[in-house]
Amino acid sequence: MADNDKMSRSEAGKKGGDTTAKTHDKEFYEDIGHKGGQNSSGNFANDPERAAEAGHKGGQNSGGNFANDPEKASEAGQKGGHNSGGNFANDPEKASEAGKKGGQNSHSGGR
To answer: Locations of Basic and acidic residues compositional bias (predicted)?
Structure first.
């Protein structure tokens, strides 16, 4: 059963924020906000070399590309070709029809 004497997280956060606001001035918040943005180790704003290095590593180690696995690339290409709706391997009638259309439209006139 829920204890009705407890405050919600939202209420507790508001109460803490109100109390802190009473003990610190605007300049304090501006100062910590400025420091936080500059000193964040999680961003690359102050270190473009580190950003470039991370991007390069990310591109090389991506599991989605085939740069480091030509066999995997070949296999994927073959699967794509076999499963393509544009090939005639599973539909000889469609292949025949396409061949006839191609012959009719060629410049040789069917010679």
So the answer is: 1-34, 47-56, 91-100
**Predicted local confidence at residue 1, as pLDDT:** 46
Half-sphere exposure of 107 (CA within 13 A, CB side): 0
Q: How far apart are CA 15 and CA 20, in angstroms?
A: 9
Torsion sign, CA atoms 18, 19, 25, 28: negative
CA distance 52 to 49: 5
Contact 102, 92 (CB under 8 A): no
State pLDDT tens for residues 28-74: 888 888 777 666 666 777 778 888 888 877 766 666 666 677 788 77
Q: Encoding tokens for residue 50?
A: 């580190």
Does this model's pTM top 0.70? My answer is no
Measured CA to CA, the distance from residue 83 to residue 85 in angstroms comes to: 6
* Eight-class DSSP state of 8: P
